[in-house]
């Protein structure tokens, strides 16, 4: 493990003491740099891996405490469809090592010994599960289990299942991880539209309990919407799951075309302002998704630091009284 936690109970104690800050976008950051291929392909090229690790490093300097591996699409089903099935294991190993390299460089550059956690990233399989597609539930479980096993064996601290639009696939991924380990923390997010419903019809106020009962320790939402629209979504999730640990990672607004390039329309200041409302619902982990940059994460880090200081001041005042 990259940090000092030995099991998920220790990780839970950390989440009880403070909000952990995750990182921001990888895919859209790579697009800004001119990359057009799937980010997971880059795990197989040494020069491209340096770029990946460099992006991780920028998020660490911005204040991220959780860095996600560049393995969003590195499950065997997705890689097989791309003709990279034989590179499945190496792609995931390299994704973990790129984060480890970034952490090592960060510590060398700053002298910091602060806690940093590696989240093994599991994205959708790339196929629809039955009855909407031809992917069987047990085959999805098998695929995610193989990916999770490699990530866990190579020293991650938690698994992040994200950007799921089908609760059934999210459940398959969670079941898969639990087949590999009962002691790894699992965070899982679905992607909801502004109406709080996924493309497959799963509602923000009605998905959490199933994920938790299947073994997820942290639940929430990412992608699809900007931080402004995410406020209403996190409110629905929190109201339906008052005691759950939440993870919230919105996009930096919506994509717009500027000078022929795709940009996202929330500045770091706007996103941080919206996070003031999101933090009222007490997420355990906060971060960004598409369009978010190290500058966005830096602003959120400043906000969380202020939030923690204010909360400590309130607790000290209560204790003094």
Estimated radius of gyration:
19 Å
Helix amount, in percent?
A: 40-55%
In which order are the strands of the major sheet placed?
A: 1-10-7-6-5-4-3-2
Find the count of extended strands (DSSP E, 2+ residues). Answer: 10
The overall average pLDDT, rounded, is 95
- String of helices and strands: HEHHEHHEHEHEHEHEEEHEH
Task: Specify the biggest β-sheet.
Answer: 8 strands, parallel
- CATH class categorisation: Alpha Beta
> How far do the termini sit from each other?
41 Å
| DSSP summary: helix tally | 11
Dominant shape: globular
Low-confidence stretches: none
Structural class: alpha/beta
The CATH architecture name reads Alpha-Beta Barrel
What is the count of structural domains? 1
CATH topology: TIM Barrel
Keywords:
single chain; 321 residues; alpha/beta; TIM Barrel; 8-stranded parallel β-sheet; two-stranded antiparallel ribbon; 11 helices; 10 strands; globular
Task: Walk me through this protein's architecture.
With 321 residues, the chain is α/β, with parallel strands linked by helices. The chain has a single domain, classed as Homocysteine-binding-like domain (TIM Barrel), CATH 3.20.20.330. The chain contains eleven helices and ten strands. It has helices at residues 8-17, 27-32, 46-62, 76-81, 88-110, 137-153, 167-180, 208-213, 227-240, 268-278, 294-320; strands at residues 20-21, 66-68, 117-122, 158-164, 185-190, 218-226, 245-251, 255-258, 261-264, 285-286. An eight-stranded parallel beta sheet has the order 1-10-7-6-5-4-3-2. Helix 9 (227-240) links the parallel strand 6 and strand 7 (245-251). Helix 3 packs across helix 5 (88-110), helix 9 runs parallel beside helix 10 and helix 10 packs parallel to helix 11 (294-320). The longest helix has 27 residues, at 294-320.
């Amino acid at each position: 493990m990259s940090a000092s936690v030995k099991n998920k109970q220790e990780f839970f104690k950390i989440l009880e003491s403070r909000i952990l800050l995750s990182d921001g976008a990888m895919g859209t950051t790579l697009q800004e740099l001119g990359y057009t291929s799937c980010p997971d392909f880059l795990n197989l090229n040494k020069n491209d891996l340096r770029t990946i690790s460099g992006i991780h490093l920028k998020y660490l300097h911005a204040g991220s405490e959780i860095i996600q591996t560049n393995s969003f699409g590195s499950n065997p089903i997705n890689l097989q469809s791309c003709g990279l099935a034989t590179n499945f294991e190496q792609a995931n190993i390299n994704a973990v090592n790129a984060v480890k390299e970034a952490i090592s460089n960060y510590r060398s550059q700053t002298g910091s010994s602060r806690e940093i956690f590696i989240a093994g990233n599991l994205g959708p399989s790339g196929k629809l599960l039955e009855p909407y597609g031809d992917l069987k539930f047990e085959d999805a479980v098998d695929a995610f289990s193989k990916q999770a096993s490699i990530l866990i064996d190579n020293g991650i601290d938690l698994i992040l299942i994200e950007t799921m639009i089908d609760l059934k696939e999210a459940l398959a991924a969670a079941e898969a991880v639990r087949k590999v380990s009962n002691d790894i923390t699992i965070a899982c997010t679905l992607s909801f539209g502004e109406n709080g419903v996924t493309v497959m019809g799963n509602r923000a106020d009605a998905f959490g309990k199933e994920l938790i009962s299947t073994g997820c320790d942290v639940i929430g939402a990412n992608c699809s919407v900007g931080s402004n629209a995410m406020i209403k979504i996190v409110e629905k999730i929190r109201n339906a799951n008052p005691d759950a640990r939440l993870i919230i990672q919105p996009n930096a607004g919506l994509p717009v075309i500027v000078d022929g390039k795709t940009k996202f329309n929330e500045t770091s200041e706007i996103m941080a302002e919206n996070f003031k409302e999101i933090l009222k619902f007490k997420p355990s982990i906060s971060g960004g998704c598409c369009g978010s940059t190290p500058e966005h994460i830096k602003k959120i880090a400043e906000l969380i630091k202020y939030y923690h200081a204010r909360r400590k001041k309130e607790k000290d005042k209560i204790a003094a009284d």
